[in-house]
Amino acid sequence: MNLAILAISAFGLTGHSGTGVKGSIQFDGMYVEGCSCHPPCPCEITGLSMGCQGVGGFSITHGTFEGADVSGVRFAYATTPGDWVICYVDAATKAKRQAGAALAKRAFGGWGKMGDVKSASILIHGARGKYSLTVDGGKIMSLTTEPFFGLDKSKPITYSNINSVMHPSVMQAKTVVCTFHDGEKTFELKGSNAYYNPAMKVHGVL
Fold first, then answer.
1. Is pLDDT of 169 > 50?
2. What is the pTM of this model?
């Protein structure tokens, strides 16, 4: 299928200000995700795979979306592609929350039915394929991963030149364990696919 403890907000976030080309995005940051597929999941590489379930998160160091500043924004998602997707955003200001919400809706709206983007605490940390992603301190989402090394047993298998603006290059990992609970939407994963990239460089139009 790259993020401080605050309670989940009951209100959604819509709209943002900014003067850029519609859908234009550029940022540096990090990303991690885990899903139910056997590695490798095709969703990020060749297109959405129906029946997959997964979560993911992005942490933007510097960047803009449609001309609006999204530096420091973190956002996460949970999805059953082709059915539903729920997105969360964590940002320091109202303007950045709105821009981050607009980015999440633009990036993942085609993955399934989506409601308002929710405000939540998002944390992502780790290195070299061993990552932890939580939303609302793990009450809503918790993902831990471990690296999946290539033939040299020291570097991860890497997929590059992917036909995806949001995921131009990803590294193979494995989901150790993942839990997701938000209302009636709930699932758990273990021992399945994961991807990450600690140095994302995204530039294009969504």
1. yes
2. 0.88
